[in-house]
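RETRY 2/3 - previous attempt timed out on the joint model. Re-submitting the same 342-residue input unchanged.
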Amino acid sequence: MAEDLVLDTAIRDWVLIPLTVVMILIGILRYFVSKLMQSQPTPDAKVVKEGQVVVRARNLRAGANFIPAKSFRARRAYFSNEENGLLHVPKGQGQNPQAQMFSDPNMAMDMMKKNLSMIIPQTLTFAWVNFFFSGFVAAKIPFPLTQRFRSMLQNGIDLSTVDVSYVSSRSWYFLNLFGLRGLFSLILGEENAMDDTQRMMQMGGFGFDPTKSDCYCVQRIALVY
Amino acid sequence: MAGHGESEKKSSDAVNDLQTFRAENLQSNMKVIYYSRTFLSIIGGVIAGILGFTGLTGFVFYFLMMAITSVALIAKAKFSIHTYFDSWNRVLLDGFLGGLMSFVLFWTFAYDIVHIF
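RETRY 2/3 succeeded.
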């Protein structure tokens, strides 16, 4: 850092702070909008029942060593009996969630709404930042970085002589986008924080077969004793 | 769950170290850890920015902050981690990298406002 750039204080007052404040406000707005658009899922009696059975089986497994062996065996038989045990679902009968999703338009609609409520504000903010604040050196990160980070941090400035630690306004937007997640989880509660991970789990859960999980449960119960 | 088969043989003394966690309580404890880490990384970022740390000093400050958080959490759990969490890693490492991004952002923000302009 041979020569330091002198940044105008007007940049701080009219670029840096407004950008951050707007990002925070948009995040809050998005939270409430997505909350409004969320339709309450009406629970299906069969699905709820299955879930409760699995929970009960899990509790039994957890508390297995606290009850007499005889009563445990009785309960195990109740759950995992080959003919009419609660956990014994005939193969291929359980409904695949993926097929369920296609048959149930509400579920697909919900997913789309969620994704849209993520994408639309982001696109709009990005366009807004691009339109008003393109080409500013808005900030300077307090630690040195290598040349590799130039394209990441100085997005929108085509000067190769500027020190890498100076951040353009567009990249400041990206920094905000990632860094404010923690703040949102603090001020908006857990729902917002869990949103992303939950969606990930949903994505990973595609093709997850309830019959398999129940069989899995049977096996695990059999494992205990 | 594999441990259950073994513990059955010595079930008399194994009752104490059996896994008897309630998933909900465990999750709520994890949430507390996550919140306190996020909160402290934001506060720590602002402090580091105002004090004008640059380069490695700031990251050392972050590690220090997280270490203090861990100690505070352990103290809050009355030094018996296994009553509240299933392993030490939960207290020491969980949410460590998640807070780093917030820390860097607020560090940069405060540093710029105070020192650059």
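Chain A has nine helices and two strands. Closing ticket.
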